[in-house]
Amino acid sequence: SLGDHLSWLALLALVALVGAAVWLHKRAPLPVFGFLLFLLILAPTTTFFPLADFAAERRLYLPALGLYLVLLWGLTRLFEPGAPAARATLAAILAIYSFGTFQRAGVWSDEIRLWSDAVSKSPEKERPWTWLGRAYFQQGNQVQAQQAWNRAAELVEPDSEQEAFLYSNLGLLEARNQRWERAIEYYSRALATIRYEPTLYAQLAVAQIRAGRDEDGWKSFEAGAQWKLRLNAQYFILRGQEYFQIGEYEKAAKDFQSALAFQPDNPETQKNLEIARRAAARN
Known about the structure:
The chain is an all-alpha fold and 283 residues long. It has helices at 7-24, 29-46, 64-78, 84-108, 111-121, 126-138, 142-155, 161-176, 180-191, 198-210, 214-225, 233-245, 249-262, 267-282. Helix 2 packs antiparallel against helix 3, helix 9 runs antiparallel to helix 10 and helix 10 (198-210) runs antiparallel to helix 11. It is elongated and about 85 Å long.
């Protein structure tokens, strides 16, 4: 709201800048046009809809077109005769920002470095810890992933979608270590918040079947299938694998074919489809 974090002061500053732009539009039409274009394009994604991220550079990709016009206008003034100090200042600014860009590129070169940097700057926020754990998990470092997700669990808002996402990650970790009952517990806790995610039902089903609870597992697959508009490749892949394990080769092939409708270039799914079709033909 306008009462949070001096938002009212920022609004007054924007109104003042727009007023100044309107007042100066005849004397400097190009920069005024660029500035107003910047605000106009930026407004829908930062003003009228609530966002999870306080700041994200991607929001500036299109609005920056307006600022480029302001920059071009400024450069024409910098390179007028008799402006060596301005040119020297510009060169110094470019050198500083170039060095900063080079340094930042090193952080972006690796997911773990990127999220470790985010954690160091926002240690009391859940999301950087969650994604740091995800990066460790994808690289096979389960101990570090567990530590990051445990820290995220201390910070996450209870009963939120972020908490459900965190539980689903912890379920994956437990399933990776074949601790099926603990995986079932985490998946169930996630589904208590987000009941509309077919992949979670499929992951729960696999854990239940591995734990010897086959009937519960197939019921979970059925529950996930009810969300038809949200079905995805991962759901069909997991169910197809389970169908294959019990000898239902035609159903497995059908699921792998459905998965390819979402990811037509997935070589592993293509291979599984061919194997299931050959097994079905032998039957």
